[in-house]
Amino acid sequence: MSKLLILGAGGLGRMVGEVAAAQGCWDQIAFLDDAVHSSAVVGRCTDYLSLTGEYSQAVAAFGDNRLRLSWTEKLLEAGYSVPCVIHPSAIVSPSAVLGEGCLVLHGAIVNTNAVLGKACLVNSGALVDHDNRLEDGVHINLHSTIKAWCHMETCSRTEAGETVYSTRRSILGVEDRNLEDALFAFKLGEVASYVKPFGSGHINDTYAVYLGDGAGTLSYVIQRINTEVFKKPQEVMENIFGVTEYLRARILARGGDADRETLNYIKTKTGAPYFEDADGGPWRCYNYIPDSVCIESVRTPKDFYNSGKSFGAFLRELENYPAETLHETIEKFHDTRKRLRDFETALERDVWDRARTCKPETAFVQAHARDCAVLMDLLEQGRLPLRVTHNDTKLNNILFDKDTGEGLCVIDLDTIMPGLALNDYGDSIRFGASTAREDEPDLEKVHFDLELFEAYTKGYLETAGSALTDMEKEYLPWGAKMMTLECGIRFLTDYLQGDTYFKVTHSTHNLERARTQFKLVSEMEAHWEEMGAIVKKYSMTEGKENHAH
Question: What is the 3-class SS of 151-196, one letter each residue?
Answer without folding.
Answer: EECCCCECCCCCEECCCCCCCECCCCHHHHHHHHHCCCCCCEEEEE
